[in-house]
Amino acid sequence: MLFLRELTPAEDTALVPATPRPRRHFTIGEAIALFTLGGLIVLAIVGPLIAWYSPIVPSGVPFLPPGSSGHLLGTDNLGFDIGTRVVFGLRISLFAAVTVTVISAIAGMILGTIAAFVGGWLDSVLMRVTDLFLAFPATIVAMAIAASLGASLSSSMIGIAVVWWPMYARLTRGEVRRVINSPHVEAARMSGTRGVRLLVKHVLPSVVPTVLVTASLDVGAVVLTLASLSFIGLGTPAPAPELGLMASAGMQYILSAWWIAVVPGVAIALVALAFNYVGDGLRTVLRAKGF
Amino acid sequence: MVRFAIDRTVSAVVVLFVLLLLIFTVSRAGGADPVRGYLGANASAEAVAAARERLGLDQPLFVQFGQYLTGLTQGDLGLSLSTRRPVSEELAQRIPATAELALWAIVFALILAVVFAGAYSLRGKVAAVIRFVLFSAASAPAFLLATAGVLLLFAQLGWLPASGRTSYGPSDGMTGLYVLDGILAGNPAYAWDAFQHVLLPALAAAIGPGVAIARVLADGISGSLKSGYAQTARSLGESESTIVRRHALRNASSPALTLLGVQIGMMLSSLVVVEQIFSWNGLGQYLTSAISAADLNAVAAISLVLGGLYILINTLVDIVLAIVDPRVRLT
Amino acid sequence: MSVATLDNLSIHYETPLRTVTAVDQVSLVVEPGQCLGLVGESGSGKSTIGLALQGLLTKDTTARATGHLTVGDRVLSPTDNSSWEGIRGSKVTTVFQDPMTSLDPTMTIGHMLGRVTRSSQDSLRWLEEVEIRSPRTVLKAYPHQLSGGMRQRVMIALALARRPALLIADEPTTALDVGVQAQILKLLTRERDSLGCGVLFITHDLGVARAMCDDIAVMRNGRVIERGTSDRIFDAPSEPYTQRLIASRLTLNVERAIPLGMPESSVIASMGEALRERGLDADSVTERWERRELTWTEFAPPTSVAQTPALTLRGVSKAFRSGSMFGAKKQVLNDVDLIVAHGQSVALVGESGSGKSTILRIAAGLERADAGEVSVAGSIGSGVQVVFQDAGISLTPWLTVSQLLMERLANAPQTRHLDQAAHTASARLALERVALDPSVLSARASQLSGGQKQRVAIARAIVVPPTVLLCDEPTSALDVSVASIVLNLLNLLRHELGMSILFVTHDLAAARIIADRVDIISNGRIIESVPAEDIRAVESEYGRRLLDAVLA
């Protein structure tokens, strides 16, 4: 599983001189990834409306390989249409991953900004808490929480959100503190701008893009984590069309009907790859533009 | 150094304590019922109530927590409801399996990182294609990589085994790490067989972290090569390859190592999935079965062990960092 | 035989978009034992020549070269790496500008030197040679454990240990404190004499070049426009550009009462405007400047300045925690008293770490004093404004100049109640005062040059005229000619607006131009206070050292 997030900026720059690449726009590969991502999102939204099979009712002969007439991506051991289930699964994956990322990013950003801006004991307390969370292996804790809550998609989402927000709080706090001590903010303070206006006009415009880029990279990681949780039985139970669950159920037929496990796995990989590529491109472009 | 060790131990204890507390609180608030899992869905209400009492589950949460902690200090982790054996016994049996898998995965991740960093430093079309393949592979979930490995190297080519830790019986060596046991026992065939078994699952977990670290390493090396000290070395007549070896690699390894610490956390979750696929009788497989049985004693204990492992590995990474970079001090 | 020869050398950088000529048909000769100064402003091509002579341009795939380059008896190609074998690192070595980044942070000094000398005995001897005290300790130290001056000595030891025929010194003292600069230059001269190697000394600092070099070549836009002996260049420069450079150079002999350097059209426009406003004759400004008849007092309002305090610091102390939460505190300021009167200009001069910037930050309200009182006529925050050292990063990158100026106008109590049109008019006036075109209003910082950014920063500080303008080394990041414009503008504004100025700098010459009084600060205490016109009369040992450092 690829985890692309940056280290906190202070650690990063202290050890290696930053080398901003001069590229200011997306490469062709990143543009393709952006289109793929758009396509997948459209498919996830529109797909279920136009699908002619049900994801939870058998629609054909079991074990049809991909390319069979009427079942482009084949059928599984129970005769479900895999293509239909993957489209529904995509919808669930994307929705869950984006929700988890957005909620943790917003929560982390608000708390991190407050910690950095207010400082003092509030900062200490908040940072102690995030330190504690960051000392855990995040996904293992997510698994433990989800297991304790009882297996379901929402348990997994809660489990992941609980371990994910502290990373944003850290990132945001670091960025806000870095920017707030930079000469341009001191100059703005000298020019009489204070409080929330200072934050909104002179600090956040350079913090938000960083958080956005990290979030776009994280969606890929969250998709993968959700799929892993679902794979080990922490998602909604069968016959729900969850991609991780489908892959795990297909594992027992892997030698006779590989596509049952592989097709949902490839769908997950595609989503994660698209997010990773787009997020990586965004990061490079923003870095080149001086954020 | 002594102070560093004490600090780290204290903070590890605090972290693990909080982790336990979190799991306990959440499990009580959550919907999973361990007794139903223990007795089966058809058990009568009386039987359930009796079992609850016997297992101490009717006590207030803090009493349960206190009892658990008391047990913990005596090495008693409670009863595993899914296997009906003490959790500590189950763990003792499985920890070496996961440790072996994790160690190999880390070793492979580091090797892959150095090799892939080369690919990331090259220019030209072929290198771009290689980078794309690496990036794609690294974006795939570990279970897909594992599946692909099984299909290709086991089913198609028949080069590698796809399940279990060995084709022979379990090792009776002292470490419980089969490859090492085989070497220590002077039995290369056993070690080689164990290595073949660990290769696929460890690689499946190592590719993602390997690529992520490779990217940071390559970035760090290219940054180092543009640095003032690289220029100094050039002006003193050092060759480019010497500069990479003597200066760039070492300077770039600090951020790469820091990232390794983070990546290992992600790798642990991949291991849980991978163990499932390769019938690797370790903590991951135990966790999966414990989850489906709502065996919370087991879940808590496994989280503790994996959490402790994570903290231990990160402490080791910090020590290595301080050795590599003289500006870093252990605090 | 000469050590190195450049014959008609041209170097272009070919990028997909355009070709840039960095060096244009340059011919130079360095003789053994000679120090040749290569002087020019940023972008003049002097650094490219330095890189070419070390064979380091071979790394740059966009570089193309024509002409000839010889080191000793070897004819070399600046772009072909193979020809440099046995030259780079043995016949030619380099001392770089920034000792902070030019030593590998993960290697001990002994390890680095050992790779050059091959024996720890020799390493030790070389450290002694460059006058490092306790060389045995330094051998085991890592770069971050040494001061900037020490690192530069190590750098020199590394470069000299190979006994090169040609030593390239690329701005070797620019990043160092003034006191250390002089020692390093002395060391370089001594080593050149004892080794007999030729030195190519690249610098933007004419004073340093004069102190160090036998011959000087002045570069501009990739060409050598004038060369001659050091004395000839300084006493009788023939090219107008050289004349300008020398005229705008700051020494302790420059006349203080009149504008610095030669007439500068942009400053003249602002001057004319200021005089016209007062109903005075503005037509002959250029001529009178040239004839050195134009004095700053003409721009002052007729009312005499009251000698009441504008800025008062009394018993100010400040300590910073070093490193971690529980680290020892370092006393940065120790019971400092400082008074700047209305209309007075005071310079605070000291080396880095002396506490001078901390005083400025406390006066600005950006930092709070641990003890003592700070008062500004009026109240803190509204009565003071700051011009920071690096204007480039003191302007919020995503806001336009107009937004920055308007923000200040909307915040200041004096202008808050005025309408949009009045604000726009004030913003334009402020830009005029710093000699910038109103078209700059819609620009962002990234679209401006270094000098323009610093002038925008000044405009922002004076768009609502403050009682005291605090300047934190506002010219140290600028080229000489740009720096003189900024200093002239500051002097003009000060007289025109009747502001007080607190000018923080490490450079006594610049301090003398701007200030009426110079306070010398060392280790967090003001140790001496002298009138600017009698700057040579400093008595403290530290003050004398600073004075010696202004070399020419």
UniProtKB/TrEMBL annotation, chain A:
Keywords: Cell membrane, Membrane, Transmembrane, Transmembrane helix, Transport
Pfam families to which the protein is assigned, alphabetical: BPD_transp_1 (PF00528)
Annotated compartments: Cell membrane
InterPro entries, per the entry: BP-dependent_transpt_permease, MetI-like, MetI-like_sf
GO terms of biological process kind: transmembrane transport
Location (main, coarse): membrane
Transmembrane parts of this sequence: 31-53, 94-118, 151-168, 207-233, 253-279
Cellular compartments per GO CC: plasma membrane
ABC transmembrane type-1 domain location: 90-279
Membrane topology: Multi-pass membrane protein
Superkingdom: Bacteria
Family label: Belongs to the binding-protein-dependent transport system permease family.
Name of this chain's protein: Peptide/nickel transport system permease protein
From TrEMBL, chain B:
Domain ABC transmembrane type-1: 95-317
Compartments in which it is found: Cell membrane
Pfam family, one: BPD_transp_1
Membrane topology type: Multi-pass membrane protein
Keyword Transmembrane attributed: yes
Keywords: Cell membrane, Membrane, Transmembrane, Transmembrane helix, Transport
PROSITE patterns for the chain: ABC_TM1 (PS50928)
GO BP annotations, alphabetical order: transmembrane transport
Segments passing through the bilayer: 101-120, 132-155, 198-218, 256-278, 298-324
GO cellular component assignments: plasma membrane
Major localisation: membrane
Entry keyword annotation includes Disulfide bond: no
UniProt record similarity statement: Belongs to the binding-protein-dependent transport system permease family.
Protein name, as recorded: Peptide/nickel transport system permease protein
Organism for this UniProt entry: Herbiconiux ginsengi
UniProtKB/TrEMBL annotation, chain C:
One of the Pfam families matching this protein, by short name: ABC_tran
InterPro entries membership: AAA+_ATPase (IPR003593), ABC_transp_ATP-bind (IPR050319), ABC_transporter-like_ATP-bd (IPR003439), ABC_transporter-like_CS (IPR017871), P-loop_NTPase (IPR027417)
UniProt GO MF annotations: ATP binding; ATP hydrolysis activity
Keyword tags: ATP-binding, Nucleotide-binding, Transport
Start and end residues of each ABC transporter domain: 6-246, 311-548
Single GO BP term: transmembrane transport
Keyword Nucleotide-binding: yes
Coiled-coil ranges from the UniProt annotation: none
Family per similarity comment: Belongs to the ABC transporter superfamily.
PANTHER family: D,D-DIPEPTIDE TRANSPORT ATP-BINDING PROTEIN DDPF-RELATED, TRANSPORT ATP-BINDING PROTEIN
Annotated protein name in UniProt: Peptide/nickel transport system ATP-binding protein
Native source species: Herbiconiux ginsengi
